[in-house]
Structure formats: C-alpha cells, structure tokens
Amino acid sequence: MKHKSILVVIDMHYIIIRFWPTSWLRFYEHETDEAKRLFGIPTRVLYTESTGAYNYTGEYIHHRMEMKEWVDHILDIRSRSEVDELTFARGCERYDFERVSNAIPKTRELTIEANIDEALSHRIFNQYSSHIDGLQLDRNIFRGNESKFRKLLIRNLHCLRMGWYLEELQGFGLNELLMCNTSYIKLQNINFSEKLLNRFLKLWVEGANFRMRRLNIYFAQQEVNKELILQGLGCRNIEITEQFTFNDITYTFNARNRLVAFFDFYRKDGVKGRIVFRTERNNEKEIFTLFT
C-alpha cells in the first residue's frame, strides 16, 4: 500500500502531522486545555524520525507559528493543496472546531472515530464531506436521517469504511449495501448473516454494484459458514498453492495473511469475483471479495 503524503490526527493528547512515511510532528503535547482550545502558537513542537530500529525525537525551538501556518508550510513543502487524511479521534472536542477547520479546511479522506458525540460528528461531516474522496465512520451517525445517509451512499467515493470492533454497526443492511456507489467498502462488526451476503453476491452476478472493486466484511462471531455464503454461485476453489496480487499486495496461504480459503466466481458479463476467507489475530472472521 502506498503511503499517503500528509496525515493529521487530532486527539485529546496532541495533534500529529505525518508528512513522510517515517517522519511526523507533535503539537500541544502536555499543554493546557485552554491552549488546545485556542489552537494558537504551540509552546513546543516535537519532531520524530523513525528508522525502524529506533526513533529519533527533536524539538523545534525558534519556529513560533500558529497551526494554520504549520499546515500551510507542510503543504507547500509537499506541493499539496490539501491534507490526504484527517482523523478526529477521542478528545478532539478539546480544540475549537472553527479554528481547526480554518487551519485545515479540506482533506481527501476523513475519519470520525466512535468516541465523539453526535453533534460534533455531524459538524465535522458537514464541514468536510463536500471535498472528500474517502470516509471512515466508526459508527453510523445518520440513524434517523435516512435521506442524508442515502445521499452519502450514492456518492461516487473511492472508499467507505464503517464500523469498529467494540460496537455492532447499526442501520446498515442489504438495501444500504446495494445502494453504495463506492469502489471500496469495508464493514466491521456488522449484523450481516451469511445468507444475506450470499444474496448480495448473487445480485452482483446479475449486475448490481458494478463500480465496486472490493468489499470487506468483518464478522464478530467465532465461526462463519462458508457453504452458506458460496451456495449457488458456481465457485471454483483455488488450490492451496496458488497466490494472487491485488493493489500491489500479494495474498497466499500463510500465517502473515491468515488466509483460510479463496474461491472464484463470475458475473454474467464475464467479470471475475474472488471471495477470500481469513481469520484476524483476534479471531474475528474477515471475508473480502475482489472484483476484477
């Protein structure tokens, strides 16, 4: 996977800006809540460079710039007009949101974590959603507002990730999945039965979700019935010695990828789908389907 150019994370302890794969800055660490709220000139700016074997940390002493100036400076260095990914994590409410959005007005991908109150989550979404190409929502903030949710699902996004491992994803079923106009969809801890996934795959064979290139579904239950998912799809079981590459990642049957089995099947127009079963380190069952 290619490293994104500029990533920003806003949480209760500090703000991190990663501008190279192994280099990042930390702002507002150990500063007061009032200093964080004002989002002004940081007292300390810590720089970390990771070599893999160890981390080198230094401090910028003579750079008295506000956060907007820091962000603009980094964007200029990387010849970017916007950050690539912006994450609002637990505790981000400590920072004044108007000041945050003024310093970071746009992002290509947006993440809103679960431990953020609903009012702020909507405010964040409304501020950034018109510019994004990718979105991650740890919980469904649109329950009770189906019209707004539908408008999101039919958008031509590159990726949509929903759910997290500690809470069942609510309000996302077969109808919502069929509505998605996204290339890559990831659904975690979803209340989605094997029969429902089988039904979706059969509809894909008939031509549904033609833009979708990848679908990841994480089942929290200990066992997943492969036969129920594969029933009626005419799948070909891939031999255990085979491997395949997708988005520059090579998948084989080994401990690192934790693969259990994979199967090929075909849409009526000849497009191939591949269903991959694997087990995560926490025994969560992942099923992802690639459409090539």
TrEMBL record:
Pfam family, one: FBA_2
Residue intervals of the Sdz-33 F-box domain: 148-217
InterPro entries associated with the record: F-box_Sdz-33, Zygotic_Embryogenesis-Asso
Highest taxon of source: Eukaryota
UniProt-recorded name of the protein: Sdz-33 F-box domain-containing protein
Organism name: Caenorhabditis brenneri (Nematode worm)
